[in-house]
Amino acid sequence: MNNMRNVQQVDHTKRTARRYWDGRFKRYVVKLLPGEFAVGHKDEIIVTVLGSCITACIYETGLGVGGMNHFMLPFEKYKNRKSINKVTNYKSLTARYGNVAMEMLINEIIKIGGMRYNLIAKIFGGASITDTSVDIGSENISFVREYLTLEDIKIVSEDVGGFLPRKVYYIPDTNDVYIKKIEKANINKIVDNESKSRKIIQNTNQNGKIYFLDD
């Protein structure tokens, strides 16, 4: 049975209206903020900025289409939690948490005709950009790796950890990724934005290539 669909004719994105033309890539840019995800059209590139947050790019090799999310924390902390193997349980109503963000993105791809056995992943982010006793970036990296292992989705490439934020550009029809490391002079704004967003959610109950950009 042929499960291929003309995905370019389907409005299968979940995002706000932050969409603009980028002359360098000759594509429309869809800008993601924490807690958002998008499954892209052929003429689009999905972009986000990461500090300690994680972005997972999920690609369906049969359809030739991919999507991207952006989450801030692995899962909502709750009592009597004994194992990360419970990451698929919905203990949060926001996609700023990894367990929700991953399920939302995967389910959206499946809704347009994707098959789980065709899914591959690339992961980015998780930098250590603050001097705190809790390394949120490392926790996010551990979470997304274990989540994808449990879901039997292969990680084909990654750029995670380190001490610098990243700007990630994802081309959903080719599975190519462009990465720009953000130098220290611009870190404070990213740290402030992530800290504010994190406080809000804590108080509310076919392998493409990776390219590194110098400027």
Describe the secondary-structure layout.
Blueprint: E1 19-22, E2 27-31, E3 37-39, E4 44-50, E5 54-60, E6 65-69, H1 98-111, E7 119-125, H2 136-150, E8 154-160, E9 166-171, E10 176-181, H3 187-203, E11 210-213
Parallel strand pairs: 2-4, 7-8, 10-11
Antiparallel strand pairs: 1-2, 3-6, 4-9, 5-6, 5-7, 9-10
The helical percent reads 10-25%
In the CATH hierarchy, the architecture is 2-Layer Sandwich
Q: Please tell me what the overall shape is.
A: globular
Q: Would you give the CATH topology?
A: 60s Ribosomal Protein L30, Chain: A
Return the structural class. Answer: alpha/beta
Total number of β-strand segments? 11
Percentage beta strand: 25-35%
What do the pLDDT scores average to?
A: 78
Distance between the termini: 46 Å
Strand numbers in spatial order across the main sheet = 1-2-4-9-10-11
List unreliable stretches of 5+ residues: 1-17, 78-93
Total count of helical runs of at least 4 residues = 3
Order of helices and strands: EEEEEEHEHEEEHE
Q: How does the major sheet shape up? A: 6 strands, mixed
Return the domain count: 1
Describe this structure in words.
- The chain is of the alpha/beta class and 215 residues long.
- The chain has a single domain, classed as 60s Ribosomal Protein L30, Chain: A, CATH 3.30.1330.200.
- 21% of the residues lie in helices and 28% in strands.
- It has three helices and eleven strands, in the order ββββββαβαβββαβ.
- The strands form two sheets. The protein has a six-stranded mixed beta sheet with strand order 1-2-4-9-10-11, with no helix packed on it.
- The longest helix has 17 residues.
